[in-house]
Structure prediction request, 185 residues.
Amino acid sequence: MIWRATLETERLYLRPLAAVDLPDLVREIGRWDVARFLIRVPHPYDPADARRWLAQCEAMERDRRQYHRVAVPRGGGPLLGAAGLMLDAHGPGEAELGYWLAQPVWRRGYGAEMVQAICDSGFRDLGLRAIAAAVDPANDASNALARTLGFRLERVEPAHDMGLRGPPAPAHIWRLDRAGWEKTI
Ligand SMILES: CC(C)(COP(=O)(O)OP(=O)(O)OC[C@H]1O[C@@H](n2cnc3c(N)ncnc32)[C@H](O)[C@@H]1OP(=O)(O)O)[C@@H](O)C(=O)NCCC(=O)NCCS
Prediction:
């Protein structure tokens, strides 16, 4: 059953967040260079934030509102990142994508590998119609990752909700629909 399943990629296992991950989560998402582009992540980030997030993930997964996985190396080791889909965020079958990767392992293809796996599973296992991601125009890594995975730059939103990061600001809205995804597989 996909809701508790572990996804596998060449180098990663993608499984639900667990209590054992919380110290790694606090350390890695606590870095400003990671958090600055994550509009719902408090900064600084402390163990209570991590415990709240775990409870939220469990509740949202139970209610089928979010499909979220953390990435760990197949050979064992610390948490490397996470990717999630907020289901029906843009209408029925249209999900919002979010992701982050631990800074020590940036630029080794892990981000693309992790995000590809959750998107593939979203289309294949959850039957999604489309996935969208809002990316800061200054976030070169995330814009490049979206392009690499076949997302199309749909529009530039002039005043996107920046959540905890401040007043509304421009965002690139990337979108991958089912037909586009099918061309990538
Ligand atoms: C975005 C993020 C997940 C990318 O992870 P990563 O593992 O370093 O990315 P990858 O190595 O898989 O690279 C994916 C693509 O992006 C490119 N890329 C990665 N970092 C880049 C950078 N700083 N500048 C330009 N391109 C970059 C890679 O070259 C690759 O493109 P290619 O397939 O054409 O070679 C990571 O930088 C991160 O966690 N950033 C902070 C959190 C964040 O921004 N989350 C997204 C919010 S919208």
